[in-house]
Amino acid sequence: MPEKFPTINSTLSTNALGKLIQQQYGLSNRTECSIFRLAMNHLYIVHDNEDKYVFRVYTCDWRTKSQIKEELKLLLHLKENNRQVAYPIKDKSNEYIQEIEAPEGKRFGVLFSYAKGTKTAKFSSQTSFLIGQALAKVHQSTEGFQLERMSYNTDNLLIKPVARIKEFFHKNISEIEFLEKLSAFLTLKIQNTDLLKLRHGSVHLDVWFDNLHIDDEKEITFFDFDFCGNGYLCFDISYFMFQLLATHLNEEEYQEKAESFLEGYETVTQISNEEKQFLPFACLAIMIYYISVQCDRFDYWTNIFLNEDHLKRMVGNLKRWIAYNNIEIE
């Protein structure tokens, strides 16, 4: 037996990490570091007197250093354009990325500004309007902005994800059959869409209440661009609306907030008719992709929920969206 048993996903000591951050970023000796969330990546809250930061430690073999650099390039581009995002902070050596030798191998860490405000799923229609405005301003800066990262398309949103989900569950259960049918339907739908009429650029791909802070019902700040890549901007619009429906059982309340969100967006920039026609379908492809990501990262994440019941719930949300939007899967 080896002297130190191999690991795949360790939890870094908050004391040691706090000292590293204090040293690398020139913070005061009052710096405190605490765990915020251990999920897809590990998040730590860092306090230095009145200043507050978030330090993200990417799980091993999740993102390459070059992929992280592209994420940070996007965030710095948005910051330079005065868009409300949590942005990366340089250390004393003018570096943004820390390399940490963890037991399982090299992990990367980045210090981010703390997004003002709080996170909540229970926001008003007026706040939904402001979220729409804020997202539209982000899209004004990301349209045509290309990243050396994944370009989201039918292959990596639909075809490969369904194959991965089938492999993970090892069974041809009804939910898998449904996802296969939905994937084929969406692939054909995308092939028959005039994609040249959809705005394209850098997308967040995970815009929902869990990745934004609301400050005094007035200011919206986006964060967690871990899944950013190249795609159609309406992906972000559609995904937000899907998550809004998923978190609102009252469909009248959802409708009011969805309309307010779109109204806020279009006070900044127009959503074309082609994009509006594509909105009901885009989020379905993204959700299939995210189910496959959960399967891929099962060993690295506390995925006790990832079982057949969870898959049923996920598919149930897809079916609810499909029914709400009167989509007929042929």
Radius of gyration: 20 Å
Structural class estimated from helices and strands: alpha+beta
Shape: globular
Largest β sheet strand count, sense and barrel closure: 5 strands, antiparallel
Order of helices and strands: HEEEHEEHHHEEEEHHHH
Q: Give me the number of helical elements.
A: 9
How much of the sequence lies in strands comes to 15-25%
Mean pLDDT score, rounded? 95
Distance between the termini: 56 Å
Total E-strand runs: 9
pLDDT < 50 runs, ≥5 residues: none
Helix content: 40-55%
Order of strands across the widest beta sheet?
Answer: 1-2-3-5-4
Commentary on this structure:
This protein is an alpha+beta fold and 330 residues long. The strands form three sheets. It has a five-stranded antiparallel sheet, sandwiched between helices. A two-stranded antiparallel ribbon has the order 6-9. The chain is globular. The longest helix has 24 residues, at 273-296. A hairpin with a 3-residue loop joins strand 1 and strand 2 (42-48). It is 45% helix and 16% strand. It has helices at residues 14-25, 65-80, 125-142, 154-169, 174-191, 234-246, 251-266, 273-296, 308-324, and strands spanning 32-38, 42-48, 51-57, 97-102, 105-113, 200-203, 212-215, 219-222, 229-232. Helix 4 (154-169) runs antiparallel to helix 5 and helix 6 runs antiparallel to helix 7 (251-266).
